Amino acid sequence: MPRQVRPLRIAVVGGGPGGLYAAALLKRLDPAREITVWERNAPDDTFGFGVVLSDETLGGIEHADPAVYQALQDEFVRWDDIQIVHRGRTLTSSGHGFAALGRRRLLEILHARCADLGVRLRFRTEAPPAAELAATHDLVVAADGVHSHTREQHADVFRPRITPHRCRYIWLAADFALDAFRFEIAETEHGVMQLHGYPFSAEASTVIVEMREEVWRAAGFHELDEQQSTERCAKIFAETLGGRPLRGNNSAWTAFRTVVNENWSHGRTVLLGDAAHTAHFSIGSGTKLAVEDALALAACVEEQPTLDEALAAYEAERRPVVESTQRAAAASLRWFEEPARYLDQPPRQFAFNLLTRSRRVTHANLRLRDPHFTDTVERDFGCPPGTPPMFTPFRLRGLTLRNRVVVSPMDLYVAEDGVPGDFHLVHLGARALGGAGLVMTEMVCVSPEGRITPGCTGLWTDEQGVAWSRIADFVHAQAPGTAFGVQLGHSGRKGSTKRMWEGIDQPLPAGNWPLSAASPLPYRPGINQTPHALDRAGLTAVRDDFAAAARRAARSGFDLLELHCAHGYLLSGFLSPLTNHRDDAYGGPVENRLRFPLEVFDAVRDVWPADRPMTVRISATDWAEGGTAPRDAVAIARAFAAHGADAIDVSTGQVVPEERPEYGRSYQTPYADLIRNTLGVPVIAVGAISSWDDVNSLLLAGRADLCALARPHLYDPHWTLHAAAEQDYSGPAAPWPDPYRAGSRRPPTGRTDAPKPRLSLDPRP
């Protein structure tokens, strides 16, 4: 039988801003409700100092409770600037718009509002267990923080995942108002330390000091008490503080923990705020998320016919928002775990990198906020006037790419006996006409046994080479300035399968060919066939197949060659410890697993023309326990670069079927960033890069040199030219073919001259 439509007895566990605001909203919506808030601390106890709220959150508060909104408006400190201190130089970016107030003052406002509405506040009182409260209340709101007892008591239902991170931080305050949101990096003898600071009143600022665990220990902070730590931090950042002291408030060094719950409700009990989720403080405030949770929960309880439906609607509404915020927070958190990686960047690029670290602030967004700052970053990058970063040229060996856009390799599976046909000509030719600087073929197989499917293209015969010459000639003649690249690969254990749309990774019903791999491990036991492990003769034969294919590729007129060492295919199978179980010289540590891919690379480089570049695609992580990890990816990239690779094409995954990728916008690009800024080698970034704004942001921040896009080019073969038109760019890096020039402006979509309304009638009587 459905539970009560409008819960009348409500218990709130935790008297932080989220719990208090939920109580106030639920009481305001129905004054007949009996609502009690349990808070184990005293009314004036609070940890931390300032709270930052966005205009979006404030807009929700204004509509839901004007009284709270007005009280907050009267208290807020507002500012627009972000200052970034890089090796003694302060760079300022404007137009960001922050609002903050003291956490204690926020609690006072919410206490007063709850008291006015008749919410019972029980301070210095531990709440009874949630199960006990649920027996006597219609709804239990668990807003008991990151260390939630409610979550722990029902972990079997909520199924939390709690991830600790690599930095220690301490929350302090200074008794003066900073004039901007300030980030400062201190390079000490023990390592990099960083300050995050912002004003929260006319007389005070929040100051968070953060550093890697090993730096924290090397500096001896683990042996200091609160006062000693506070004094030490004040000395390290004395210039920002003007020599003034810092103060704590029961402040302790802690490691941030990301909280994720599989479920947010259990019967009548629902999680809210940090009990349900956390997001790193570097992208904003946990208070913001908790207040937004409270708004959504109250609205869903009001709108839905039953409590079950209300809690389901609350989670459905909030989870996507929270997950998006947590992805952004994770990117920001990782940046602050590795600031030393970027310290050698030019100052303005470093500042731009920091500002865009979460991918929520982008090149276009920052240009709207502060065009002057963005102009200076672009000039330092080398952008000619009026030229977006993506339309600056890039040189690889003897090849100059007119822009930074790559059409990523995309398997088509429509070849006959490995010969590319008219479909390939039209597909690749259309994308060459579409303006990209480099157009890549699909994975071109080096032998019949190295095909993924019967529809894969190849370069194991001269006939195939001639067919590729036809396409290369079209690209060079009809899209002059577009580079044409070939990706050579061998399927390994992932071969002899149906075409993708017939059943991805499914074996053929008939006509299967034998597979070879680093080790005799089927891709999926019981489904895919078991490959044979290559012996010395087999290794030599495969190496020679690659070299022969490379010779044909050179004769076919390709401008660039990429060696496919990713996605679980043959060479990738040697690199990953999950697929390479050999006990000879080609197995074991990463330097041994690299041996055969490097032998193939060297054989190809020897026959590939010296002035034409070679790149290597790798899977920088297997997204699976025990697989290739970031440190392995750096070692692999370093080895290929040492052997002459001109760039590393950094992809991820597709190595083992049990992978668990962390999907999201630009989700693979941090691995390109890692390799580029650790080794200083050029990289191609891939992975859910979907907008020209993403491309500009990645390039300008120094996270990538080229950006490869696949699906956007399936959706729009002229993606690059349209990106130029949308940015009002018409220079040499994106020339429209003469027959298409009339389409270089977006056509009108409908009438735009309709008269605007002049009078709005107030619907109220």
TrEMBL record:
The record's section on SUPFAM superfamilies has: FAD/NAD(P)-binding domain (SSF51905), FMN-linked oxidoreductases (SSF51395)
Under the heading CDD domains, the entry gives:
OYE_YqiM_FMN (cd02932)
UniProt cross-references to InterPro entries, sorted A to Z: Aldolase_TIM (IPR013785), FAD-bd (IPR002938), FAD/NAD-bd_sf (IPR036188), OxRdtase_FMN_N (IPR001155), YqjM-like (IPR044152)
Q: Domain NADH:flavin oxidoreductase/NADH oxidase N-terminal: where? A: 390-724
Q: Which Pfam families match?
A: FAD_binding_3 (PF01494), Oxidored_FMN (PF00724)
Q: Give me the ranges of the annotated region Disordered.
A: 730-765
* Ranges for domain FAD-binding: 10-326
Where are stretches of biased composition, namely Basic and acidic residues?
A: 753-765
Tell me which domain of life the UniProt entry assigns to the organism this sequence originates from: Bacteria
Task: Name the PANTHER family on file.
Answer: BLR3436 PROTEIN, NADPH DEHYDROGENASE C23G7.10C-RELATED
Q: What is this protein called?
A: Bifunctional salicylyl-CoA 5-hydroxylase/oxidoreductase
Q: Which organism is it from?
A: Streptomyces solicathayae
